[in-house]
Design brief:
- This protein is of the alpha+beta class.
- It is 37% helix and 25% strand.
- It has helices spanning 3-21, 38-57, 60-66, 87-103, 107-110; strands spanning 74-76, 83-85, 114-115, 122-126, 129-134, 137-140, 143-146, 148-156, 159-168.
- A hairpin with a 2-residue loop joins strand 8 (148-156) and strand 9 (159-168).
- Helix 2 runs antiparallel to helix 3.
- Mean pLDDT is 82; it is low at 1-36.
Length: 181
């Protein structure tokens, strides 16, 4: 092989190994996106962990800063009717949740503990858009509830922001063990 081709083969193999080692997924038919860089992959994975930590500690400032200011930003909660469009509505939803949980005796100003169950199920990026799928656990006072989460990030003014999020637990909120037995 010529040096240029060998260099590209080594680059693709190294990028594939790095993506998989950092928790990304790919099947044999997938090509490594040329725009995927290890530093951005690591940065997005770190932001997801910081997002979980902010939920756990009731850090509304972080939540407010990570949500896109786009009027098209959207979050879907676990219950029917939990659809929040726009930055202010999404942040208000988080604030209302922290206030509600604080009233039930949750520590950290109503922080809802979110625990990662391992590496991210998927983290992919193309250009200024990245998407994440994960299966973290909500640690309610009355018991743990496995969830499913998808997040879409968009790079805005050089910063990754969540432009869409969707939580799923597969059961109505009324069946969640919110209070200690």
């Amino acid at each position: 092989m010529k040096n240029g081709l060998m260099s590209k083969v080594i680059h693709v193999a190294a990028a594939s190994a790095a993506m998989l080692a950092l928790g990304g997924t790919m099947n044999s038919a997938e090509a490594v996106p040329t725009c995927l860089t290890v530093p951005e992959h690591t940065q997005i994975a770190s932001l997801v962990n910081q997002f979980y930590q902010a939920s756990t500690t009731g850090d509304l400032d972080f939540i407010e800063g990570i949500i896109s200011t786009s009027p098209n930003a959207l979050f879907l909660g676990t219950a029917p009717g939990e659809v929040y469009a726009g930055h202010d509505a999404i942040v208000q939803w988080w604030q209302d949740m922290f206030i509600f949980l604080d009233g039930l005796g949750y520590p950290n100003d109503g922080g809802l503990p979110i625990e990662a169950t391992g590496g991210l199920l998927q983290l992919q990026q193309e250009g200024n858009v990245a998407w994440v799928a994960d299966d973290p656990t909500f640690a309610f006072l009355g018991g743990d509830v496995p969830t499913r989460l998808s997040l879409v990030f968009r790079k805005e003014s050089g910063q990754w922001k969540i432009v869409q999020g969707h939580w799923s637990v597969g059961l109505p909120n009324e069946e969640l063990p919110l209070e200690a037995p």
